[in-house]
Amino acid sequence: MNLTYQGKTKDVYKLDNGNILLKFKDDVTGENGVFDPGANTVGLTIEGAGKAGLRMTTYFFQKLMEKEIPTHFIDSNIEESTMTVKEAKVFGKGLEVICRFKAVGSFLRRYGAYCEEGQPLDAFVEVTIKDDDRQDPPISKQALSMLSILSEEEYETLQTLTQQISQLVKEDLATKGLELYDIKLEFGRDAKTNEIILIDEISGGNMRVYKDGQYIEPLALETLLFS
């Protein structure tokens, strides 16, 4: 296998059979030693974060498979911190799709003059461009279409899938007394079929979850979910 990309929280390898191997790391995004799923830099290293993230990702991807929601997931090896996935092509140079149930994070920083922290949002979906130099700017459906990153019809598909997936995660967490405030997802096109599929991961590192009004750190979230 060949190393093709070293990311903030995962390394990516191309396997001889054409599939992709993701190696989860203990690095998480944030700033000044504080975790932030919306940050563009590695903020800290948490021992065990890689395995915890993979365990949650495997758990949720398997649930999505049961619901016949398309993903890149094939299988995983928790002990090795690896996940085998289908090859996928990202939109443009990469997009992130956020589903927001409460006003926190960058949404609150941008629109704080018009909302309060924790204010309910109705599964609001927004798309940002993966561009560290420009702080991952939000982009509209029309702009995505005009720039030929994806069509307006594909945008609607992304929005629908994002809300379906986020609602599934939200409801599952609620069974443990946990509340999902927001979640960041990534999508791509299946390299073989061109179908739009969920890629990357679903873990504590790309969501904000609270219990009784208190934020839950990624490792603690994994412990609560599987307790």
Topology:
Layout: E1 2-6, E2 10-14, E3 20-24, E4 27-31, E5 34-35, E6 42-45, H1 49-66, E7 73-77, E8 82-85, E9 88-90, E10 95-102, H2 105-111, E11 120-129, E12 138-139, H3 141-146, H4 152-174, E13 179-190, E14 196-199, E15 207-211, E16 214-215, H5 218-225
Antiparallel strand pairs: 1-2, 2-3, 3-8, 4-5, 4-6, 7-8, 9-13, 10-11, 10-13, 11-12, 13-14, 13-15, 15-16
Helix pairs in contact: 1-5
Domain SAICAR synthetase/ADE2 N-terminal: 4-215
Pathway: Purine metabolism; IMP biosynthesis via de novo pathway; 5-amino-1-(5-phospho-D-ribosyl)imidazole-4-carboxamide from 5-amino-1-(5-phospho-D-ribosyl)imidazole-4-carboxylate: step 1/2
Catalytic activity: 5-amino-1-(5-phospho-D-ribosyl)imidazole-4-carboxylate + L-aspartate + ATP = (2S)-2-[5-amino-1-(5-phospho-beta-D-ribosyl)imidazole-4-carboxamido]succinate + ADP + phosphate + 2 H(+)
Helices and strands, in N-to-C order?
EEEEEEHEEEEHEEHHEEEEH
Shape: globular
Estimated structural class: alpha+beta
Count of DSSP H/I helices: 5
Radius of gyration: 17 Å
Q: Name the CATH homologous superfamily of the largest domain.
A: ATP-grasp fold, B domain
DSSP helix fraction: 25-40%
Number of strands: 16
CATH architecture of the largest domain: 2-Layer Sandwich
Overall CATH class of the largest domain: Alpha Beta
